[in-house]
Amino acid sequence: MSTTFLPCGDYHQTYAQEHAWWQTKFIKGKMICLFLCLFVFIPLVANDYWISICNMVGYTILGALGVQLLIGYCGQLTLGQGAFIAVGAYVSTLLVLEFPWPQFMLDWGIAYPVSVLVAGIAAGIWSVFFGLPSARVKGFYLILTTMAAQFITVDFLLTQYVSQIGGRGQAFSLPAGTIKLGPWVIDSDLKVYYLMIMLVIVFCVVISNLMRSRVGRAWVAIRDNDISAEVMGINVVKYKLLAFFVAGFIAGITGAFWISNLAAISPEHFPWFLSLSLVGVILIGGVSSIHGTIFGAIFMVVVMELLQLAVMPLADTYPKLLMDFLFIKEAAFGLAICLFLMFEPNGLAYRWWQIKNYFNLWPFSY
Amino acid sequence: MVAKNRIKEGDVLLELEDICMYFGKVCALADINLKVRKGEIHSVIGPNGAGKTVMMNIINGLYHPQNGNIYYKGQKINKLRPYQRAKLGLARTFQKVEVFGGMTVLDNIRLGRHIHLRSGIFSGSAYIGKTAREEIEHRAFIEEEIIDFLEIEHIRHKAVGMLPYGLQKRVELGRALALEPELLILDEPLAGLNLEEVEDLARFILDINKEDRWRVTCLLVEHDMGVVMDLSDHVLAINFGNTILDGKPEEVQNNPEVIKAYLGDEDLYATRA
Description:
Chain A is mostly helical. Chain A has 15 helices and 4 strands. Chain B is 40% helix and 23% strand. Chain A binds chain B through residues 1-3, 15-16, 19, 206-207, 209-210, 212-218, 220-221, 223-225, 227-236, 242, 246, 288, and chain B through 60, 62, 81-83, 86-87, 91-92, 94, 98-104, 107, 110-112, 114-115, 117-121, 123-127, 131-132, 135-136, 139-140, 143, 157-159, 162, 175-176, 179.
C-alpha cells in the first residue's frame, strides 16, 4: 500500500509539513470530530450495554496492536499473545492484592498505575523469552514456539501454580475499590471506557510514531527481507527481540487494564482462542496497518454482538440455539476470516484507503 | 563518515587473503587473493558457478570462510557479523534484487540511513525533539543527494514491490548509497536490464566512483564484458573457485585462459558434437 494521496490543490512546501501528523485542515477537522465523538458523544448516547461493548472493542484493539506489531510489522508469526495479556493481568492483580504497599500509596491510588507498568515490563520480558527462538526459526515454526507460550503460561503455570497463591482456588476476586488511578476509583463501565480510550490513543500514537522512525523501519525491513536488512546494518536478532518486548509490553498493559473491567480473574479469561482471535482481528482488519487493527476489532466485536442480537429472538422458537450460540459464534468467526482471505485479503484497511484516495483525488481517477 | 582510520587514495581498502570456502565437499573458492584499492572499480568476472557471489557474501559476512582472512582498512573483519561490517562502511546490492517490497521507495532509502540515525525506542515513539529533527535532516539528505541523483523523484511514494525491475535495481542502489559506504559491492547490477537502463546504471556507477561527492570504491560483479572492460581499473577472473588472472582489463581480455573459461574448451565442443 503506497501512501495516501493529498487532495487536489493541497501540496507541501517543507519536509516538516509532510512529516506532520495531521497534514491538511480537513484531516484536522475530521480528527477533532472523532475525538469529540469518542469523549463526548458516545458516553452521552450509549447505555451501559453499548459502553461495555466499546470496552470490549478497546480491549481487542489493544490486544491486537501487539499482534499487529509482531505479525504485521515485524513478520514474526505469533499465536501466543493471549499468554502475555494473561501475564500482565496476573502480575497487576497480584501486585494490587498481595504486595505490601505502604498505606499512603494505596490512599493516593498509586498502587494500580505502578502495577500496570510493572505488568507491562514483566509481560515484555516473558515475551522476549518466548521470542528467543525467532533468532533461529521463522514462519510456521515460530507459530509453534509462541503457541507453547500460551500453553506453558496459561494452562500450566497460571492454572496450576499462580492461581493457588493465597489459597483462593481458581479465581482472584478484585473487590470494588481496589482499582484506583490516583483519586479516580474505576468502578463503572464508563470509567473503564475513558481509561480504555486513553490507552488506545496512546498506543496507536506510539506505534505509528515508531513505524515512521528508525526502529519501526528496521522492523518492517526485517519482515520484508531479513538478509538485506542485516546487510544494511540492522542487528536482526536485537530488533526481533525488541519487537517481542514491545508487543509483550503492550499485551501486559492490556491485561493490566482489563482487570479494571473484571470482578475476578481466572485463567479462563485468557484461552488460546483469544490469541487466535487476535490474529483473526488483524487478518480481517488488514495486516500492517493501525487502521486495520481498529477496524478489525470493531468488526470482530460488533458483528459478533449483532449476530447475538439477531440470533437471540429466534431462541424462543429454537431453544437449542441458546445453548449452541458459542459454536455459532466461532463458526461465524471462521467464516469471516475465510471470506476475507478470499475476497479482501488486504482487509478492511485497504478498502478504507481506497475510499480515502477516491475522495482525495476526486474529480480525477488517479 | 563512519570510518575511524582514514586511508588515502590508492591504498588497499579491502584485502582477501587465501580464502577457502567449502560447501560440504564442494570447493566454492580455493585460495582466493584479492586487493581492492581505494578509489578504484575492481571487477570480478567468471562463468556461472565460478564463485563470484560466494565471494561477495564472504566479504559481506553472510558466509564465513573455512580458511583465510579478510582485512578491511588493515583491520581483520573475519568475525564480524554483516551488520557490524555495514557500520564500517560496507554496502552492497544483490544479484536478485532484495528490496523491501512493502515499503515505499523513500522508506527503503531511509532504511539505508539506519546506521547514521540515532533515535531509539523511546524518542522514536514520542517523535518529538531529536527524532523529528533528525528525520527531517536525513530526509533532506535523501532527497537532495540520492533521489535527485538517481532520478527517482516520481516514484518516491510508491511501494517498491510494485515497481518494474529496472527501477527496483535503482532503488536498491539508492539504499546502498544512503549508507554512505566506502566500499560498495555491486553484484550483477546490470543483469536483466534493457539497453537504456544499462547505460543509465553504468553512468551512475561511474558517477558514484568518480564524482567528488561520493568517491566510493566499487567491487563489481558483472557479465556484460563491454561494461566491465570500460569501467574497471582492475579485473579479477575466476573459474571454479580458482583465480585465473588479476590484472588490467586489457590483460584479462587477451588472456587465453579467460577466453577458454568463458567460451569453453574446443575439444569439449568436439566431443559433444
